[in-house]
From TrEMBL:
SUPFAM superfamilies: BAR/IMD domain-like, DBL homology domain (DH-domain), SH3-domain. Residues 101-134 form a coiled coil. This is Rho guanine nucleotide exchange factor (GEF) 37. Keywords: Coiled coil, SH3 domain. One of its GO terms (molecular function) is guanyl-nucleotide exchange factor activity. GO terms for cellular component: cytoplasm. Residues 600-663, 700-763 form the SH3 domain.
Length: 765
């Protein structure tokens, strides 16, 4: 049996174009996969895997077709019979080639737009949720504060006894509630819902308009919160009191302490930036209020920064403005190596400033504020001293019961009227006036004086820190401790520059208001006294006078009394200003000569009492020392402190402890007149205090007292003389018994002249 051989060629021919639809289909799939990758970024990795699998399958199918084509070409020997075979998948590939590419791109674009719309809608929902969270949390926050300040506070006040320092616990809570309620009222004023696009703009505008009030309220509350915590810890130490507080607090919101409510403002001010930034995150940059929202978020962050900075400044101020009453042993116990080294460095820097070895850091703005503060301090202290003196004399007048004495007055009616008027003044009108004076003038002045202590301590501490800062200022690199020193100086300096002008303005306003109140009190006193005197007007001695005549009579009486008082004052002044020469030691005499040569004899003063310096640049002097006057007031214009030169150094001395030194010439120049014989000295003395026996023997004086030299008066208590001018000796010594000065009369004027400037000459010479 013969088996037929395998033909060399196949009777059909394969179309090579069958691979083209496969390749086109693969390209379409690649484009579709790329579009899906751009639209769905979170599924990029999975799409890449699908893309690789699809590409591998397409390549495998294409290789299979090519292999079959190659095998077919090898088997075919170009026979005459060729059969055209049509594959089943050829129709499918042909249909896919008919699908236009634009349709696929449109579908991908449409799908992308749908996803973007969904993302925007989701973002809008999140924005609306953030806005609703801000509004709803603000309402809940305000409701909690109202429960705390109204219900809980009233219940705690009703406890017997109420907790101590309860008002300080709720300090500044009303201000915080006020700004929160105002913010909510502004949001509800336009009656817009959070879904409305204009609501966001209204929210930002409302917050920005209240930003300054929010900062002012919260910064005071946050500064006081540390004190609130200390008070609450004090409550916890008393178990019985704390259990009562818990019984009051727990039924409200199931809280276990007061801090549950009191910490809410601390948390709320810090949440504003977070909530506003969340709204900004979910807001479209194309939103009309986006720029305003960004500004509001930045403002909320700045508020927190300002509050933190204010809190830090207040902590530094509280640390350094304290006044500690330490004993000497306490100060010794506080000494350490570090403190001694620090004080030594400060003293060394201060010496360098005074000697000019190192320049001093000058701050003109601060120096101006400090000078104005010192003027205010001096004015407040002087005003307080005057008010206390006024009240003292008023109290002395009230203690004097003059109506109980008998007066030599014409008529009984006038005496009765006087007693009744004085009784009414002493028992009703003046005591009420004194009470109002102490309440409205004296007490506020005392409180204002106490407030000066804090700024004064800060100014002194700034000087200390400035000396420390100048030591380390030139160093290129600072250690941690040196950085702390520099930071402390800058903080105190900035605090004083910010707060001292406000303090000066408020203190000045208080002084003006007190002076106005003082005037109003006296106006009311005059009205009360006028009303009192109207009931006795017809019974007084001068009630029949016409108002103009009565005014003239009053003016005449007042002027006469003033004239008599002036005469008395002049008499006392002459007595007090009589020349004083105290014995001086040789060293004082040398210093006196030195000061006289340098400043002149008219500037020499002598110390009447021992002087102990209590302030900067004060001198310590003993009784009898000589000084030369340089200025009759200090740098602040105080005329009670004089700038003097003691020969060794210059400084300030109380003017009340100085008296002008009248130096008598020890070696007068030769007189052009005849010298007085030595045995005639007793006679010159007798011319001042004549002896009766001498007058009996000599009925007419043989010598005349004249001025031997020219003398120029240096005060009202002295008299000027010219050489050869006759004088009449009234007293041969001054009021203190000093024979170096004589009281004389010349040309109708009386005054003191040096005794060795006088001489006696024979009559008729």
């Amino acid at each position: 049996m013969e088996v037929s051989g395998r033909p060399n060629t196949l009777p059909f021919k394969l179309h090579k174009s069958a691979s083209t639809p496969l390749r086109y289909s693969g390209a379409v799939k690649k484009v579709a996969k790329k579009n899906q990758t751009k639209e769905s970024g979170n599924k990029e990795k999975d799409n890449q895997v699908e893309y690789d699998n699809a590409s591998s399958e397409e390549d495998t199918a294409e290789d299979l077709v090519l292999k079959q084509t190659t095998d077919s070409s090898e088997l075919a020997d170009g026979g005459a019979h060729q059969i055209h075979l049509r594959l089943p998948s050829e129709d499918t590939f042909s249909e896919e080639t008919l699908v236009p590419e634009e349709r696929l791109v449109e579908e991908a674009k449409k799908k992308k737009e749908e996803e973007e719309a969904a993302a925007k809608e989701k973002q809008a929902q999140r924005q609306m949720m953030a806005i609703e969270e801000l509004v709803q949390s603000e309402k809940s926050y305000l409701r909690m504060l109202q429960i705390c300040t109204v219900n809980i506070r009233n219940s705690l006040n009703n406890l017997q006894p109420p907790p101590p320092n309860l008002d300080s616990v709720f300090l500044y809570t009303e201000e915080v509630m006020n700004v929160s309620s105002r913010l909510l009222s502004k949001l509800e004023q336009k009656q817009l819902k959070p879904q409305n696009p204009e609501f966001l703009e209204n929210l930002c505008t409302s917050f920005l308009s209240l930003s300054s009030e929010i900062e002012a309220a919260y910064k005071e509350y946050l500064w006081n919160y540390n004190h609130v915590s200390l008070v609450e810890n004090g409550y916890k130490q008393n178990e019985a009191l704390w259990s009562e507080i818990i019984k009051v607090v727990k039924p409200e919101v199931n809280a276990t302490s007061l801090s549950f409510f009191l910490v809410m403002p601390v948390q709320r001010i810090a949440r504003y930036p977070l909530l506003l930034q969340t709204i900004q995150k979910h807001s479209d940059p194309s939103h009309p209020a986006y720029a305003l929202l960004e500004q509001t978020a930045n403002t909320s962050i700045a508020l927190n920064c300002n509050i933190n900075e204010y809190k830090r400044f207040r902590e530094v101020a509280d640390k350094y403005k304290k006044t500690e009453n330490l004993t000497i042993m306490d100060k010794i116990n506080r000494l350490s190596t570090h403190s001694i080294a620090k004080k030594t460095a400060r003293f060394s820097q201060y010496i360098k400033h005074e000697t000019g070895m190192a320049p001093k850091l000058v701050d003109e703005e601060f120096d101006t504020l400090e000078g104005f503060f010192n003027i205010l301090e001096y004015g407040i202290l002087v005003l307080l001293e005057n008010v206390e003196t006024y009240l003292f004399h008023l109290q002395s007048f009230l203690e004097c019961k003059t109506e109980e004495f008998d007066f030599d007055m014409d008529g009984e009616k006038a005496l009765v009227c006087y007693k009744e008027i004085h009784t009414a003044l002493r028992q009703w009108i003046l005591p009420m006036f004194e009470k109002r004076m102490r309440t409205l003038i004296h007490k506020p002045l005392c409180e204002l004086r106490d407030l000066l202590v804090g700024p004064k301590n800060l100014i002194r501490k700034r000087l200390h820190k400035l000396l420390d800062y100048e030591v380390i200022e030139g160093k290129p690199k600072l250690s941690y401790e040196e950085q702390a020193v520099a930071s402390a100086y800058k903080t105190i300096n900035t605090l004083l520059l910010n707060e001292l002008p406000r303090f000066n303005d408020l203190a000045l306003q208080m002084i003006w208001r007190m002076l106005g109140t003082f005037s109003c009190l006296h106006r009311d006193l005059a009205a009360d006294m006028e009303q009192l005197f109207q009931g006795f007007a017809l019974q007084l001695p001068h009630s029949s006078y016409h108002p103009k005549e009565f005014q003239e009579w009053v003016e005449t009486a007042v002027l006469e009394g003033a004239r008599n008082l002036d005469i008395l004052c002049q008499s006392v002044q002459e007595t007090l200003n009589s020349p004083v020469v105290q014995p001086a030691s040789p060293s004082c005499q040398r210093r006196l000569k030195q000061l006289t040569d340098k400043h002149g004899s008219g500037k020499i003063f002598q110390v009447t009492n021992t002087v102990v310096g209590t302030r900067d640049f004060d001198l310590n002097l003993t009784k009898g020392e000589f000084v030369a006057l340089i200025s009759e007031f200090d740098t602040r214009g105080d005329k009670r402190r004089w700038l003097v030169d003691s020969g060794a150094k210059r400084g300030y001395v109380p003017s009340s402890k100085l008296i002008r030194y009248h130096q008598a010439a020890e070696d007068p120049p030769p007189s052009p007149f005849l010298p007085m014989p030595g045995n005639m000295m007793a006679f010159r003395r007798h011319s001042c205090n004549p002896d009766p026996q001498l007058i009996h023997v000599t009925s007419q004086p043989l010598f005349q007292v004249v001025a031997a030299y020219d003398f120029t008066a240096r005060g009202n208590h002295e008299v000027s003389l010219r050489a050869g001018e006759p004088v009449r000796v009234l007293e041969s010594q001054d009021k203190r018994g000093n024979s170096e000065w004589s009281l004389v009369e010349a040309r109708g004027q009386r005054g003191y002249v040096p005794s060795n400037y006088l001489t006696s000459i024979p009559v008729g010479t």
